[in-house]
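User: Assemble these into one structure.

Assistant: Restating your components, then the assembled model:
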Amino acid sequence: MRRTLLIAILSLILVLCQGCWDRQELDTIGIVSAFGIDLAETPGQILVTAQLIRPAASAANQTGGSLSGKGSYWVIRATGSTVFDAIRNLSEVSSRKPFFSHNQVIVIGEELARQGVFPHLDVLLRDEEARPTAWVAVCKGTAAEFINSDGGFQAVSGFGFGQLLENQSSPSKVAAMKLQEFHRSLSSKSRDSVASLFEAFAADRTTKSRTPSASPLDPATPSSDESELTFRLIGTAVFKADRWVGDLNLVEGRGYLWAVGEIRSSLVVVSSPSQDGSVGIEVLASQARIVPIIDADGPRIRIEIATRARLGCQQGPASLATSEGLSALTDLYEKAISDEVTQAISKAKELHSDIFGFGETFRESYPRVWRTLEGDWEEIFERLPVDVSVRAQIKRFGVISDPAYPKQR
Amino acid sequence: MCKAGVLGNMSERISSSQLVYLMTSFILGSSLVLSSAMIGIDRWAALLLGLGEGLAVARMYTSLAARFPGQTFVSICREVYGSILGKVVALALTLFSFQLGSLVLRNFADYFNITQLSQTPQIAIMITLMVACAYGVKKGPEVIARTSQVFLPATIILIVLSFVLLLPEFSIRNFKPLLDTPIPRLLVDAHGYAAFPFAEIVVFLMVFPLVNKGRQIHASVVSSMLIAGMVLLVATVRNIGVLGDSIERFTYPTDQALRLINIARILTRLEILAAVNFITMGFVKISVCLYASTLGLSELLGARDYRCLVSPVALVMTGVAYSAFTDIAQNIEFAQLAWPIYAPVFQVIIPAATLALAALRMRKRRVLR
C-alpha cells in the first residue's frame, strides 16, 4: 500500500514538476548578435538598437549561396530612461524576448561615449545573461546605424564585426577590447581605457552617395536601403575616465599596441636603406615591458620592446638579402617602431589619458610612492619622460633572396 | 525502521582515508565559489594565514577525539559537564551544525538564483538539493563518505582544468602590488578564512566516533585541511590572476573568472563547472551538517536511531535557510561581518572549554587517587 502511494506521488511530481522556470525556448527568444547604445533625441533617454538573428532567413540565405545580409537579421530600436529599461522596451517591437548571451559586439554611439559610459555599462556586467567576452567598440555617428550596416561575408553583420575585431591582431593597428578588460581599465584609477573606433563609409558597390536618413535616431524600424552603408575601423578611441576624448590614428594605434605588447603580426613599411622605394617588414613576434623607474629626477618610464621580423616585400632593385642589408634594415625597423610608440605617447599626453597604464606600473611596483603620485598623476603624466628601447631582429627574407628584377651585374 | 543503535551499526563505520575525502569535500563545500574575503588581490595570503589558524584550532578537536575515543560530542559533554549543563552545551553545537547546514543551503540557492536560474523560486532549488542530502543521510554517513570519494577527485580535476583553460587570461601582474594590504585588514580576512571554511569542521566532532581507527584522526584532519587549503589556493590564485583588483566587484569571482574562458571560441560558457563543483561539494557539506545535527538531536532526545529525525530536521533546515535572510546583501553582510565573530563561539570557545574542563577533571581524579 505504502509502496503504491509512493509511486503514485512520485509520478504525480514527475508530471507536475517537469521543465523548469528558467527554460529558454529557441522559438521564444530573439538572439542578439550586436547591440548599440546611443543617446536618444529626447534628453535623458537612451536609445538601444539590437540586431536580432532571423534563424530561418539565415538558413535560407546560406543554402541559396547568397551572402547578402538582407533578411538574415532584423534591427529593432527602443528608448528608455536606462539601458535596461530600453532593452525591456524592445519588446514593444519584437515578438521574441531579446537574448543577450550570444551578443558579439557592444557599440557605443559617439555622443554617448563623449558624455561618459559608466552609467550605461552596469546592466551589461550585472545581468547574468550578458557575457563579459563581448567586444566593445565606439563608432562615429550613431551606434544605431552601425548595427544596421552590411555584414560583408557574414550574413549577420554582428558576427562579422565580432570576427573583424578578433582578427585585429593580424594588422595590429587598432586596439580591440572585450567588455571585461574595457571595464576593468575604465574603472581603474591608475590607467585609462581604449576601444576600437568605427566610421561609416559607403560600400564600393553602392554608387549613389548615401544620404543620411531623416533621423537615424527614429526608433521606428529602419528602411532597408540603409544597410548599404558599411563601417570600417579607422583607429582607436581613447577614453579619459569614462569619456571618449580623442582618437589614435592607425600609426599611433600600432604605437600603442607595441608599447603594451599586443602586436601579434603586422607590416611595418620603411623606406629602403638603398633609397629605392619602400620595404615592408613583416612582424613575426613582439613582446614589450613597461618598466617604471624612480630616481633622483623623479619618476620615468622605460619601454622595452623585443621583436622578431622578416623581410616581407621590397620595391627597389638592390638586394637586401645580405647581412649588411638586413642589419641596415633592422636599424630602420627599430627606428620606425620607436617613432610610432613616441607618437602614440605624445598623443596620449595631449589627451591627458594614461592608456598605457604607466600609473599602474608605478602602483604595482612602487605602491608607497604611487600614493604620493596619485593625487596629481595627470600633471606628472604629461611631463613623464619615456625612453623607448627596441631590440629587433630580422631573421629571414622569404622564398626569394634577390628582388624580382633582372639580375644586376 | 529504527532498529540499530544511535550510531548505526558497525558496518557504517568510515575509514580514516574516507574521513579525508569527506572532510576535504566539506571544507571545499561552498568556499570554492563563495568567499568571505573583503580584500582584493592579497586574499591568497589571508587564505594561507587562515589555514594556519584553522590547523591550530583543529588540534583541539582532534585532542577531544583522542581523549574520548568512540564518543560523540553529546556524550563527551555529558561526561565533562554533567547531564544538565552537558545537554545545554551539546545542544549549542547541534544547533550550530544545523545553522551551518541551512546557511550553506541558502548560499547554494542564492548562487543559482544569481548566476544561472534567475526566475526559479529559491525554495525549489533548496528542496531539490535537500531531498538528495536527506536521502544520503538516511542511507548513513558511510554512503556520504563514498559519494565524496567520487566527487572530490572530480572537483579537483575540474579546478585544475579551469586553471589551465584560463592560462591565456592569467596575468602575473594582477598580483602586484604584492602584499600591499594593511596588516590589520589582512588579519581580519585571515580570521574570516579560518571561521569559514576551515574551523567549520567542528561539526565533525559528531562524525569522529565513526572512524574505525581513532588514532589516525589527527593525521586525517591535518591532511584534509592541507589538501582543501591547497585546492582553495589554486582556485583563489586563478581568480586573482584572471580578475585582478576587479575581483572585489564580483559577487562570485569564481563564476566571473570561468565566464572568461574562451578557447578558440569553442570552449566557452564554462562557468557551469563552478556550479557543478558547488552542487557536489555543497551536497557533501550539507549532508554532514544534517547528519551531525540530526545525530546530536537524537542523542539529546534519547532516540534509538537518528534516521527517524532526518526528514523533519531536513524540512526545518530548509525552512530556516529560506527565511534566514530577506536578501543576498544581508546574507553577505552576515558572512563577512557577523560570522567571524559569531562562529568562534562554537568553533573555539566551546571546544576549548570542554577540553580544559576535561583535563581539569582528569587531574582531579588522579589527585584523589
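Chain A touches chain B through 18 residues (CB under 8 Å).
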